[in-house]
Amino acid sequence: MNKQFQQDYERFKNLSYEDFKALAKDESLSVYQKIGFPDEYRKGKEKDIFIDIGGKLGWQNETGKTILDIGCGCSDLVNFIIDHGKNTSAKLLLVDSAEMLQLVKNELFIEKYAGYFPNDTKDLTEQYAGKVDYIIAYSIFHYIFYNTCMFRFLDTALSLLKPGGKMLLADIPNVDKRKRFFSSDRGVQSHKEFMNDDSMPVLQYNTPEPGQIDDSIINAILQRYRNFGYETYLLSQPENLPMWNRRDDILIQRI
Ligand SMILES: C[S@@+](CC[C@H](N)C(=O)[O-])C[C@H]1O[C@@H](n2cnc3c(N)ncnc32)[C@H](O)[C@@H]1O
Questions:
Q1: Minimal-distance CA residue to ligand 1 atom 16
Q2: Which of the chain's ends, N or C, has fewer CB atoms near its CB within 10 Å?
Q3: Residue nearest to atom 15 of ligand 1 (CA)
Q4: Region 185-198: what's the mean pLDDT?
Q5: The CATH number of the domain where 98 resides is what?
Q6: Which domain range does residue 117 map to?
Q7: Residue 170 pairs with which residues in a beta bridge?
């Protein structure tokens, strides 16, 4: 693990929405650092993330769709999504802080909504209720989970879907998934290679981990929206993505 990575890893460990605004304004940072990742986790990898998102949403051969990206950030990923929107004559709705959105290019087919979703974005949620084909919420849910009512965030987002519309709530860090990986032989080996020493991963069990998303939260989301009449699916990330061994993706479809 190099020194810059270690510094970034510590610095980006517990970010809030307000912290992201400060990162967005810091001109010394790369676009990946501005969205809270050490470069190693995102640089050169966002095309693969974009391909995975498209495969999960199944939007490849479709045109004229309305796509919403909540917490779009400012790195290559949002640019791939913008290119997709342009190539498919989509309408693209982008939500993030004004500081982050300022770093994202403007195009006629893009509408930007600055503010904390759902608290500050009533203009979006009122105008687009039942009108959105695809919602992307990539690598954002862990910033919502312990700061906002997570179900209000999801209930509001899902109220925007058209019949047949899909929401990808993705790149969710699941502490139980992480423990399963790092207690396996393969996980121990990968930890040793990453640390470049012979240490074992540190894993805690049977202790409160209040801010962490675990299997119980993942299962509660899958169950709640099935009970609300949606279909929900727990999906894996392909192994070419940087954190496939500790992150979960959830696809929710309005029937
Ligand atoms: C880790 S970054 C992910 C960015 C992008 N989705 C990606 O994966 O490349 C999280 C982003 O979500 C934004 N964010 C966090 N909570 C938000 C909220 N409640 N409403 C809007 N944006 C939010 C942050 O400002 C930040 O840009």
A1: 17
A2: C
A3: 17
A4: 93
A5: 3.40.50.150
A6: 45-174+213-254
A7: 138
